[in-house]
Structure formats: structure tokens, C-alpha cells
Amino acid sequence: MGSEPSIHGEMLLEMFIGKRPTDGMFKESLNLHNYVKMNLPETVANAADPRLLQYGGEGATSINYRHPDHRHASSYEIQECLISLFGIGLACSQETPSERLDTSDILAKLLVVRNKFMETGGIHEQRSRIGIQS
Fold it and tell me: What are phi and psi of 98, to 5 degrees?
């Protein structure tokens, strides 16, 4: 629509997929926003930067992160976290500026994800609170 994309959304998506908007895979109508959107929620791990994930036995994913209770995050917990983070990134990178989140909303939603992930590891019940549809 002639407006500049949101730097917040682009950076968030770049950080978690490990690709820049100028990556060679983005041609024609495929861009960072559309790439993440088409992988949500079912194939979110495919869109994530593989350096964030380690693939273990039976295709399970885990991350080099331990919760305060010294357990590794489960693949479900990681998937739910990525879905929420990508959802926030998508909401920040909407084409129309009036549809984008403002900075204070971005921070509040990121804190909800962080706090829920740190507390219990799973964030399924928080998706609706931060505007992510199942």
C-alpha cells in the first residue's frame, strides 16, 4: 500500500526464522510475512531457524534451554512458544499500518509469552489472550 513495513515485526520474524527479507528464497509474492503465515500453526518448526532447535529421537524437538526447575522444554512447549512469537511478528508486520501492533502492545505480548514459558513451559491457554488463533 506504499507504506513502510514495521521494523519490529520484520526483526522479530528475522530473529526466529534466521532469514533476512532479502534472502534469495523470497521471490514474487513470497516474503518473510507470508512465509511465516503459511507455516502457522501446523508446520511452525519448519519455519523456525534450525539453530534454535535440536532434533532428537523420534522426531521430537528440544531446545538448549532449561526451565528454572531444571527440565528441558518439551517439543510441544517450544512449538507453542514459536506459534505465539510468530503470531506477534505477523501482527507487527501487517501491510496496513493501522492493523499493526504498537510498541507498547508488542512488549506486553512478548512479556506474556516469556512469563508463561518461564513459569510452566506451555503457553497453549495464552494464545487467545495475545490474539493468536488455533
Answer: -65, -20
